[in-house]
Predict the structure.
Amino acid sequence: ANIGDEIIIKSDNFKTIYYTIKDKRRITVIVESIDEIVPIITSRSKSNNEQALFEVYIDSANYFLKKDAKKSIEYVTKAFETVSYNKGSKHQNTIAFETLGDINLYWKQYDLAIDNYKKSIATLSLKEVEATIKLRIKLALAYNLNNNYQESLTTYKNLINKRLNT
């Protein structure tokens, strides 16, 4: 497989696993019964295993985003559990909250999408927030779809003003 390829591991004996190749590292996936999926990506350190497992769960959540909201949210929950909210890196928390926001936005739970996009933005430093235009646009869209038109306009105006000032 090449970087960017999605691997799908499927059997009647266990839940399907979806994993997108991120780098040239060798991976091993170990699965358990159909009742619980426990993929373990082997690498040289525990933090690399946790990061790889986090990525597997986020990739799976994104795969199911438009197919099965419950399953998608379960994968994000498992991603949080691999790194725990307090111990996870800011980057991991940002990704997980953004993914939850995307799930909620797609399934028209706009108030939850807003909350999760705000949490995603809150995990970033001020300098990083400036670089997350895409995330702020998603927040503005969620405000708009939730009929929070003033918040949507304010978010868009702030983005335009910051862009004009740089």
